[in-house]
């Protein structure tokens, strides 16, 4: 496992870059719009959780903050701020809780708490932060309390999918690793 | 004149940034002064698309343009289908949708929305892929490697990040054939449980297939993305150990693939 590498090597930079790009693509490829908030449902969180479980909190933070926010820049620029902060926190929290984990149950708890952070983060931004910002900057006038409440369900479904698929991908790709970012794990399924 | 031949590199960055100014039209202009009107919006984005496509044909060739536009098209079509399905299902179950300002999100609003988003996708994605591929990883390591030991170490990180992004842009067009190989008949009835007399159970079978297909696709995407990483890392290690005397061919596009 590569949860606590002593040194940030170029190979790890490559892996984080790859996961950031993949998180961006995962967010771009499956976009199901939610009209009342002008936002959209996506599966980018899968790769944020995978990055945090596989490479630790710093990588989770970077992948979460950059990948999905880059996808938002294409078509949904209003959500860049909320996405970068919320998903960055999601990756960080998952990585911190799962750091050094030897059991899948702890990883499951970490991923579940991370998904909860994502749902709560978007709610806070849409219900409180954006309406306050919108008083000065019309650009952020995209959500209301009603919209934030109605987005709780799709965000929860998104979180559940991220936990299940993220853990599945981690088992499929990362768990056969030898501990060095330079040696990419063999594919077992 | 190819964008890749512009020297020095920072003038190339400047030229690419100037071409990409309309990217800021959709967001920051709104940020400053409200949403742009329909005609200026379409005029700017169609012109931007023409310039970007021309730049890609001249710098990377027609095949590369087709590859990148095909990816943008797949994403756009998936978004359109999802948007239309959600709109119809939502309208059928909960009644007409409303936008945050209270106005109705009817079929006309929906059509405008998806045309705008399609245009943004079809132009900005090829532009971003062209931006990433306009720089040479070997060139970056050669430039930074001649400065100091510290710069060589930094160069290692920059080079590998750049090369991984370029590699992903190269394998992206392969992802559609991967999906087609796994699922040759796409959303055909064979993915539904026709023997079940309950409609909901037939649909659940379809969802099961969709979930499994997405999972396999995600694995393929990851495998493609990280496949060459050990090779790149080894090359960068060699450069760093020899204190920035790169043999420019070793991590270049051809040898890395």
Radius of gyration based on Cα positions of chain B: 23 Å
* Unreliable residue stretches of chain B: 244-250, 253-257
Strand element count of chain B: 2
Q: Any idea how many domains of chain A?
A: 1
Largest sheet of chain B: 2 strands, antiparallel
Average predicted local confidence, pLDDT of chain A: 83
Describe the structure.
Helices cover about 65% and strands about 5% of the residues of chain A. Chain A is mainly alpha-helical and about 190 residues long. Chain A has one domain (about 10-30, about 45-175): Arp2/3 complex 21 kDa subunit ARPC3. Chain A has a two-stranded antiparallel ribbon. In chain A, helix 4 runs antiparallel to helix 5. The longest helix of chain A has about 30 residues, at about 105-135. Residues about 1-5 and about 175-189 of chain A have low confidence and may be disordered. Chain B is an all-alpha fold. In chain B, about 75% of the residues lie in helices and about 0% in strands. Chain B has helices spanning about 10-20, 25, 30-35, 40-60, 60-95, 105-135, 135-145, 150-170, 175-180, 200-225, 230-240, 255, and strands at about 95-100, 105. In chain B, helix 4 (about 40-60) packs antiparallel against helix 5, helix 7 (about 135-145) packs antiparallel against helix 8 (about 150-170) and helix 9 packs across helix 10. The longest helix of chain B has about 35 residues, at about 60-95. Chain B is globular. At the A-B interface, helix 1, strand 1, helix 2 and helix 7 of A face helix 3, helix 5, strand 1, helix 6 and helix 8 of B.
Keywords:
heterodimer, A: 189 residues, mainly alpha, Arp2/3 complex 21 kDa subunit ARPC3, two-stranded antiparallel ribbon, 7 helices, 3% strand, globular, disordered N terminus, disordered C terminus, B: 257 residues, 2 domains, 12 helices, 74% helix
